[in-house]
Design goal:
By secondary structure, the protein is of the alpha/beta class. The protein folds into two domains: 288 residues, Zn peptidases (Aminopeptidase, 3-Layer(aba) Sandwich), CATH 3.40.630.10; 109 residues, Alpha-Beta Plaits (2-Layer Sandwich). 33% of the residues lie in helices and 22% in strands. The protein has a six-stranded mixed beta sheet, sandwiched between helices. A hairpin with a 2-residue loop joins strand 4 and strand 5. Helix 2 crosses helix 4, helix 2 crosses helix 10 and helix 4 packs across helix 10. The longest helix has 24 residues. The radius of gyration is 23 Å and the shape is globular.
């Protein structure tokens, strides 16, 4: 797919009033060139670990630069590239920001029935690693950005933040938040994670912990000579099973959760283990401070147990009555042909970092991917959902920018 074929998309629509013919031509493009772009993105192997987003970022950056956007690249490690693309407006309204991540999870142990990087399309489904989570969403965002008329009198600008390293804890977004002037501010934020094109206004936070216990090694035939670290860990795990968070459920996100996901200890069967490590996954809700949760949990488990934080992401929630949020609800209602009610999700996104870094704009998580397909073998995304997402994104951006 040539870059010029994408840029040809909306030359005809730079007039003040779009005609029905314009809309039909746009629909034709979005059904062909858009899906070609999504297939191209799936072909980039950006599995994390190890993560190698540079080539994908540079490809998208070139498209956006040719489309009139100022593009900057940021690497937090070698080949771990995020990009920020901007087109300025003339008013004092801050830009609208669309964001997605370029990395994917690994393929997993299960055998795939399709080539995970071929971007095969079967019966209206685009298959491949990252098709739902979330390269279909990125394709829709980029097409919307290139479709937006480049008018000098736009009352607000548009920005795209495409990150590396989201899957292992928002690494790229966190790096951007620390680089002076990399992000600026935004008046509204759309994160294209998989939601089947249903707008979501909040998600839980995450706190990943490593719990360590220590003991004294000894021969397995003389356990009284040692101090068994696994027994200490087992007692701590049973205490965690009974742990209760001192906070009422959130109206949209429910209650916080805790889960012990991994457990390792010992070096061989005939020795008393002197070290054990367990992995703890906590999902928090608005009103909880991650540092306080960690402090309370350490106190609850007591001495002999050491907790170390390996990932920390805050929960987010936007006001469902916000004027822009309601406008997005209305746009989605017109496309989905169903009533839109405020909803939240349990997984976290780059919004944990970007929302506060962008001066706390109202935020919607909205993408074409299937939530149930994320991280699965034979992952797919409906091509029709990608097309609809591109039209929804364009309408959201058009209204914000004043077209």
């Amino acid at each position: 797919m040539s870059r010029l074929s994408i840029l040809h998309l909306y030359v005809i629509s730079d007039s003040a009033h779009r005609t029905l013919v314009d809309k039909r031509r746009m629909a034709i493009w979005m059904h062909s060139e858009l899906i070609s772009l999504a297939r191209k993105l799936v072909s980039f192997n950006t599995m994390n670990p190890p993560g190698s987003e540079r080539d994908c970022a540079r490809f998208l950056g070139a498209l956006l630069a040719e489309g009139g956007y100022d593009v900057s690249y940021y690497e937090f490690e070698e080949r771990r590239t995020s990009l920020v693309a901007r087109r300025e407006g003339v008013g004092d309204r801050p830009p609208i920001c669309f964001s997605g991540h370029l990395d994917t999870v690994p393929l997993g142990a299960a055998e795939w029935g399709v080539d995970p990087f071929a971007g095969e399309i079967v019966e209206g489904r685009l298959y491949g690693r990252g098709s739902s989570d979330m390269k279909g969403g990125i394709a829709a965002m980029v097409s919307a950005a290139l479709s937006l008329p480049a008018r000098k009198n736009a009352r607000a600008g548009m920005a795209l933040v495409l990150t590396a390293g989201e899957e292992k804890g928002c690494e790229g977004a966190s790096y951007l938040a620390e680089v002076e002037n990399a992000l600026g501010e935004a008046g509204a934020l759309v994160v294209g994670e998989p939601t089947s094109n249903y707008p979501v206004i909040g998600h839980k936070g995450a706190l990943a912990l490593e719990m360590e216990t220590r003991g004294i090694t000894a021969h397995g035939s003389m356990p009284e000579q040692g101090d068994n670290a696994i027994y200490k860990a087992a007692e701590a795990v049973l205490k965690l099973r009974d742990y209760s968070f001192d906070i009422p459920p959130h109206s949209l996100l429910g209650s916080p959760t805790i889960n012990v996901g991994t457990f390792k200890g010992g070096i061989n069967i005939n020795s008393v283990p002197d070290r054990s490590v367990a992995g703890i996954d906590i999902r928090t809700i608005p009103g909880q401070d991650n540092e306080k949760v960690l402090e309370d949990l350490q106190s609850y488990l007591g001495q002999g147990v050491t907790l170390r934080c390996i990932l920390k992401a805050g929960s987010i929630m936007s006001d469902p009555g916000d004027e822009w949020v309601q406008e997005v609800f209305g746009i989605c209602k017109s496309f989905l042909k169903e009533e839109i009610a405020p909803k939240g999700i349990s997984y976290f996104t780059d919004a944990s970092v970007l929302k506060p870094a962008l001066k706390d704009p109202p935020t919607v998580i909205l993408g074409p991917g299937e939530p149930a397909m994320a991280h699965k073998s034979d992952e797919f995304c409906y091509t029709e959902n990608i097309r609809v997402a591109a039209e929804v994104y364009l309408e959201i951006a058009r209204r914000w920018c004043g077209f």
